[in-house]
Amino acid sequence: MSESWLNPEEGGTLLLLARESIEAAVTESPLPELPAHQITQGLQLQLGAFVTLKMGGELRGCIGEMNWERAVYKNVIRAAIGSALHDPRFSPLAEEELAQIKIETTILGALQKIPSAEAFDPLLHGIQLEASGGRAVFLPKVAQETGWGREQLLENLCLKAGLVREAWKHPHAAFKIFTTQEFAEMV
Fold this sequence. Notes:
By secondary structure, the chain is an alpha+beta fold. The chain has two domains: 8-109, Hypothetical protein ph0010, domain 1 (Glycoprotein, Type 4 Pilin); 112-178, Dna Ligase, domain 1 (2-Layer Sandwich). 27% of the residues lie in helices and 26% in strands. The protein is built from four helices and eight strands. The strands form two sheets. Strands 2-1-3-8 form a four-stranded antiparallel β-sheet, covered by helices on one side. The protein is globular. The mean pLDDT is 94.
């Protein structure tokens, strides 16, 4: 479900901050600092954040900061650097790739525990699964982009967590859902 915690200007600030943070990290330069006059009430909200990098329309990195005790703009900085340098699925972003990436930020509302996977609507919610010592998260756009229904999405979430496909059906599996707000750089 799309929320609106931040206005479009604040979203643009987060995208710029993400890009500047990535460029600084890749070139080993000092990280950007947001001037105090640009830190709005919205940017100080304690919200989680994911930063997704795409290159040529394909995923190039995606890391989240699910910390609701830190200002969202600080979570975006950390997630941006993580996406560029620490996503285990990809090699660290190279300086020559900087001009080719497109950045998306996904802002996360608070996690809400649900009694079972039946209360999860893959087109409206992001989801976190914890089961058998594994944990994984999918943003709402995963279902939208893949076309997966609830069961297929939950099976793939289990695989992402390093579990067997059916682990989500175990009585001890725990689920939390969240809503999001997205901002993306224009092509």
